[in-house]
Every structure is written in structure tokens, then in C-alpha cells.
Amino acid sequence: MGCSLWPAELVGQYRDRGYWTGERLDAVAARFARTVPDRIALVDETERIGYGELERRISALASGFAAQGIRPGERVLLQLPNRVSFIVSAMALMRAGAVPVYLLPAHRISELAAIAVQAAPVAYIGPAVHAGFDYRELAGALSQGIPGGLQLIIDGTPGEGQVALEAVARNGAALAQQTVPVDTTALAFLQLSGGTTGTPKLIPRSHDDYLYSVRRSVEICGFDDETVLLLVLPAAHNFPMSSPGFLGALLAGGKVVLAGNGSPDLAFPLIEREQVTCVPLVPPLALAWTRAARTSTPDLSSLETVQVGGAKFLPGAAVELQEVLGVQLQQVFGMAEGLVCYTRADDDAVTVAQTQGRPMSEADEVLIVDDAGQPVAPGDPGHLLTRGAYTIRGYYKADEHNKTAFTADGHYRTGDIARQLPGGHLVVEGRSKDQINRGGEKISAEEVEDHLLAHPRVHDAALVAVPDPFLGEISCAVIVPDGVAPSRAEIVTFVRGRGVAAHKVPDRVHIVPDFPLTGVGKNSRAELRRALAAQLNPTA
């Protein structure tokens, strides 16, 4: 069933080179279910299950979904938090031949309704209540707005007209359990793009391309059966799912610990109790962990590697994290659309702190081009384009958008400004719109942010452009303070004291309690710009 997402000639090439193997994502843990069924695979706040039990639950739930009338190829919205049921449900849907559409717990009716228009789902799976929010009401409202409605499957006590996920699994366990054949080059699941504006685009992934990304990540990151991975980021994100993520940990025979959030108060005891060896974080969480460890005495002795990705981690913060937590930092730069870069264990300290790693596969093609699409001089910054054995060739049902998001020869326009060092490592300078043009002087937001973050009373910072009638744009340092907020005079004196050019010193300082976030948890400069512009130019 299905239709390949890839040109036929590439399918042949990737198979011949051994990148694609025809294996299924829902079978990543099957080998260990046969050989070491009692080894713990998944841990969450309420249960611990072994590999054998994981496989039994996947098979039972897959049969249950089929009995509910969910057919191969049909899309199902999956909105579960970090718990065992999320991983079981995702794999069970794929085993039944259905297509999970990964949503985040933070999504609400406006996002869900827009995504549903694109995905045309037949069912929704969500929690009853999570973090004080009743998802049963959300599910009901979503279903009412869709012609014909949706099957509503609830992890917990269901509402009226809804069915319990546990009941679906129980029903499936009593049936003959069969794995539905799938075309491993066809659509396996849909992820959401990490854009900061508009409705997220749907990213189509196949078993072949995604599993290659996971396998290669496992090799580079050294995951094995002693790996204990802590997930504090939402498991539906690409980073904690596949880089190497929970899929990689299960493929290697390790243990996955699922946590509800990344608070040090929750995460640090879990690291000690479960003897966690690796955790993926985004920069704001990495900063929070560094601050918390500096003022407490957690036992993090088992923790070997902290991966930081999702946004650029600035050099000063990278050095401090390693010193305070006593871990090896691995920078991870990539995108749900494909390309993934890692710093390696044998990289020197400067490379780890100041680059975002190098592409993980020999099949990754990287181009750095200018505004006209021409290659820049080696080492110069430019627009990052990429294609390869696990980088998509187009968004799902988005033909018009794909004309600008991809080149005619299949390179994905990432939207990142980067430069490539002689050894292949990338240094991400920002997004294509993250430069501030102050009267003709170009300012890199990330460069100034690194200086701002060095201030002892700055927890996090973003440098954004705001309109100015004389210079066109001026810079505003938007700061989340650590304790008493610094004044503008203090910030100016501090940044000037670090030896930067005068035009890079922030023109304004704006204090906020926290940053707005995009749908996938990244710092959203686009939202900050809009908010500041509205405040400074209310009649514009």
C-alpha cells in the first residue's frame, strides 16, 4: 500500500548503499522483546515495563485500532504527554498501517483545527486531563468542527461519546494480532514544522528514511544496552524522538525514562534514581539546569552526556554547562525536515563549544549560498541548503509552498544562515531574518546574545530588531532576569566592557518574565518582534 515519498532512482541508490533497509519503525524494540523480555524499556511516573511487555502492548493496541475501524493509510491525531502510552500508541498505529500525526500537549483548538484541515484525520488520541487541562473537551470541540466527526480515544476516563484507550487495547488483546504490511518508502507518520509564523506545515516521513537517521545517530552517539535516556522535552519533537531519542535508545536496547517536564526539581532526582546517562535539552533548559546545579548538590554522577539542540547554544553557556554539570556536551543541530549535525566525542573543546557539529551522514549534501543562490566563498556565511537520504523532498500536500521551500533539484532551504569550517562543522549564525540592519551596519543577534548571557543577572536573552524612523532598525535586548533585573545602563556598560563594536551595543533594554514560545518549544524571535513593534508603534 502507499506511494513512495521519494523518486524511484533515489530509492534504488539508498537501498544499494545500505542506507535504507526495508525495516519498520514499529519493530525497533522487537529483537530485545525476544531475547531479553524482562529488561526495562520504558519508565514513566506511574509504571515500568520491559521489552516483552512493550511488544505485547504494541501488538494488542494495533489490533484494537483495526477493530475500531482505523484503516491502513488513515491519519490519526496523537496528542499524548510524556508517558508510556505515547510510545505504545505511536508504534501501534504504525503497526496497524495507520499514520500518526504528532501533536504537542500545548496545542489547542486553533492549532488542532488547522492541522486537521491539512491531515484529514479519522481519529484523535489524547489524555483525559494533563497539567490541569481537560483534553476531553478539546477533543469534543475539534470533532464537532469536522464533517462526520472523529473517533475520540482517551487515555484515562473518557467523556461522553469517547472510548478509553485501555478498552481499545483490551479488545485488541483478545483478537488475532497481525502486522499490516507497509511500503517502507511511503508515508509512516507526519510531524509538524518548527516555523514561527502561520500554521505549521506537515512533514512526511517514511520508515526507511527516518530509521536510517535513527540508526546513524545511534552509531555516532554511542548508544548501547547500557544507555539510560531521560526525556524531559515533549517526546513528539523530532530531537528527543530520533537524535537518537527514544527510538534510538530502544533500537540499542537501552532504557527510556519519560518525565513530565524539565524542571531540575523533577529531573535531578530522576537522574540519580534511574542512573540516567544522557539527556537532550533545549538552550533555555540547559541554562536553567546550569543555574540550579550551581546552587545545589545533585548527584549527577551517572550523567555522561547532555545534548543541546533546537536552537543555537551560545559558546559561553556551552562551556559553563560542562564545567558545572561535569558532563560532555554534544551540540545537536538539525530539523524535523531532515539534516542532523552532531559534535563528536573526539572533537576538541573549542569545536564543541563554538560549532553546531557536522552532518552525520556521508549522504548529506550541504550548500552555503548567497541571496542569489550562488555558492559563497569557503568559510563565509550564507543560506544553508541541504538534501540527502533522510531529508524530505517536500511538505505534505503543500505544492505551492514547496516551490519556495525547495530548489528545483531537491535541496531544502532550511532558513538558517550558517558557515562551514574546513572540517565540515557548521557554525549557525542565525536565521535568515535574525540579522539586524542598523543604518547599514549588520548585527548578528546570536553574537550579542552571547555577551548578554555572560551577565550574572541575565538568565536568558534575545536581541531583536525594532523599527526606527532614522536608522530603519535598532536593537532591543529582551531579557529574562535572574533575580533583580539589570538596568539599561548596566547592560550597556557590561556589553561595552566586553570589547564589542559600538553599533552592537543594545539601543534599548526590555525586561520580560519569560519568552514566548513557538509550537515546538523554541525561542520565538518573530513573536518577540511583533509584540515589541505593537508596543512601540501602537498606531502602525
UniProtKB/TrEMBL annotation:
- Ranges for domain AMP-binding enzyme C-terminal come to 447-522
Cross-referenced SUPFAM superfamilies: Acetyl-CoA synthetase-like (SSF56801)
The protein's name: 2,3-dihydroxybenzoate-AMP ligase
Single GO term (MF) = nucleotidyltransferase activity
Q: Determine the domain of life of the protein's source.
A: Bacteria
- Domain (AMP-dependent synthetase/ligase): residue spans on this chain: 31-396
Might you give the EC number(s) for this enzyme?
A: 2.7.7.58
Q: Supply the alphabetized keyword list.
A: Ligase, Nucleotidyltransferase, Transferase
Which InterPro entries does this UniProt record tie to the protein?
AMP-bd_C, AMP-bd_C_sf, AMP-binding_CS, AMP-dep_synth/lig_dom, ATP-dep_AMP-bd_enzyme
Q: Which Gene3D superfamilies match?
A: 3.30.300.30, 3.40.50.980, Luciferase, Domain 3
What species was this sequence derived from?
Answer: Arthrobacter stackebrandtii
Main EC class the enzyme belongs to: transferase
Taxonomic lineage of the native organism: Bacteria, Bacillati, Actinomycetota, Actinomycetes, Micrococcales
